[in-house]
Specification:
Blueprint lengths: L1 E6 L7 E13 L2 E10 H106 L4 H28 L7 E3 L1 H11 L1 H6 L2 E7 L6 E3 L1 H20 L5 E10 L2 E8 L6 H4 L17 H11 L3 E6 L5 E8 L9
Parallel strand pairs: 5-7
Antiparallel strand pairs: 1-2, 2-3, 4-6, 7-8, 8-10, 9-10
Helix pairs in contact: 1-2, 3-5, 5-7
C-alpha cells in the first residue's frame, strides 16, 4: 500500500493523491496482482467519522478518568482531613482524661494521707486533752490558794491562757478530722452575722475597727446548720480582725449579706494588707498558714462546712486594699451529711 500523485479528474490542473493498495490473487493457477486506487479525499471522507468518533471517545474517556481521579483525590483529602480532625479531638480528649486521672489519683493520695493524719490526730487529741484538763484544774486550784500573791497569780494566768490556746488548737484538729453532723434549721442570715459581730464586738472596738454592715432587705430564712454557719462567719470575721490589728491607718471591716438567685451570699472583707497572689490558691489547704499562731486549719474547716452545705467560697483582693471572702449558700441546700 502506498501513495502516489495523480491528475485530478475533476480539475486536471490539480494533482490529487491516491492511496494504492496491492493484493496478490491466484486465478486459474496463475498469480495476479489486484490493485485498488482511492483518492485521498475519499479515504479521508471514509475515515473522518471514525476518527471523529474515536477522538470524541478518547476525549470523553480522558475527561472521565481525570474527573474520577480528581473526585477520588478530593474524597481522600476530605477523608484525611476528617480523620485528622477526629484524631486531634480524640487526642485532646485522651489528654484531658489522662490529666483528670492524674489529678484524681493525686487527690486520692492526698485524701488517704489526710485520712491517716486525721485518724492519728484524733488519737493524739484524746491523749493530750485529758492531761491538759487535769493540768488546767490544778492550775485553777493553785490560783485560788495563792490569790494573794499577785506575781504568782499572773504566772498562773499565763499558764491557764496557754492551756486554753492548746485546747482551741486541739478543737480545730478535731473539727477538721471529724466534722460535726449537720443539724439543719431555718434561720435569718442577718441574725447569724449580728450574733457573731456581738460576740467579737469588744475586740473590734478595742482595735479601733469601723464596721460597714450591708444587708439586703426582705431576705427569706436560710435552711442551714446555724452553729456551723456561725463558725464560718466567726472564722472569716476573726481573720479580718487579725489582719486589721496588724495594719496602720483607718481600719474597716465590711460585712455584706444579699441574695443571688437561690443563694444567700455572705461577703466578709477588710481594708488590710490583703493576701499575696501566690498564697491565694493555698489558703484553703490544711495546715497552711502565714501566721505565727495557729495550725492553718481555720479556712480548711470553713471550706468543708460550706461544701457540706452545697455552697462555695472564694476570695479576691480588693482594689482599694484588703481581701474579700465570699460565701454562697443555697437557701434550700442538699446536705452531704445530716442528722
Amino acid at each position: 500500500m502506498d501513495w502516489y500523485d495523480y491528475e485530478d479528474p475533476v480539475d486536471p490542473a490539480k494533482m490529487v493523491r491516491k492511496l494504492v493498495g496491492y493484493y496478490p490473487v491466484k486465478i486459474e493457477d496463475r498469480l495476479w496482482t489486484l490493485g485498488v486506487c482511492t483518492p485521498v479525499r475519499e479515504v479521508e471522507d471514509q475515515l473522518a467519522p471514525y476518527m471523529q468518533r474515536t477522538s470524541i471517545f478518547s476525549t470523553t474517556a480522558l475527561i472521565a478518568v481525570f474527573s474520577a481521579a480528581v473526585l477520588f483525590v478530593g474524597l481522600l483529602l476530605g477523608w484525611n482531613r476528617a480523620l485528622s480532625g477526629a484524631v486531634r479531638e480524640r487526642t485532646v480528649e485522651l489528654e484531658e482524661t489522662a490529666t483528670k486521672l492524674r489529678e484524681t489519683f493525686e487527690e486520692l493520695i492526698v485524701a488517704r494521707k489526710i485520712a491517716a493524719v486525721g485518724n492519728m490526730s484524733l488519737g493524739l487529741v484524746h491523749e493530750i486533752r485529758n492531761p491538759l484538763s487535769a493540768i488546767k484544774m490544778n492550775v485553777q486550784m493553785l490560783m485560788k490558794r495563792m490569790s494573794g500573791d499577785h506575781d504568782t497569780g499572773e504566772h498562773f494566768s499565763i499558764v491557764e491562757g496557754e492551756i486554753s490556746r492548746l485546747n482551741n488548737l486541739l478543737g480545730d484538729v478535731m473539727a477538721y478530722a471529724r466534722p460535726g453532723a449537720i443539724r439543719s434549721a431555718e434561720v435569718l442570715a442577718v441574725d447569724l452575722a449580728e450574733r457573731v459581730v456581738e460576740l467579737v464586738g469588744q475586740r473590734i472596738e478595742k482595735a479601733g475597727i469601723d464596721i460597714e454592715f450591708s444587708v439586703e432587705e426582705g431576705l427569706q430564712p436560710l435552711v442551714c446548720d446555724p452553729d456551723q454557719i456561725h463558725q464560718v462567719l466567726l472564722n472569716l470575721i476573726l481573720n479580718s480582725v487579725e489582719s486589721l490589728e496588724d495594719s496602720e491607718g483607718l481600719r474597716i471591716l465590711r460585712i455584706e449579706i444579699r441574695k443571688e438567685g437561690e443563694l444567700i451570699v455572705f461577703a466578709v472583707g477588710d481594708n488590710g494588707p490583703g493576701i499575696a497572689p501566690e498564697s491565694q490558691t493555698r489558703v484553703f489547704e490544711p495546715f497552711y498558714t502565714e501566721k505565727a499562731k495557729g495550725l492553718g486549719l481555720g479556712l480548711s474547716i470553713v471550706e468543708g462546712i460550706v461544701s457540706r452545705h452545697g455552697g462555695s467560697i472564694s476570695l479576691v483582693n480588693r482594689e482599694d486594699g484588703g481581701v474579700m471572702f465570699t460565701v454562697k449558700i443555697p437557701i434550700h441546700p442538699r446536705f452531704t451529711d445530716e442528722k
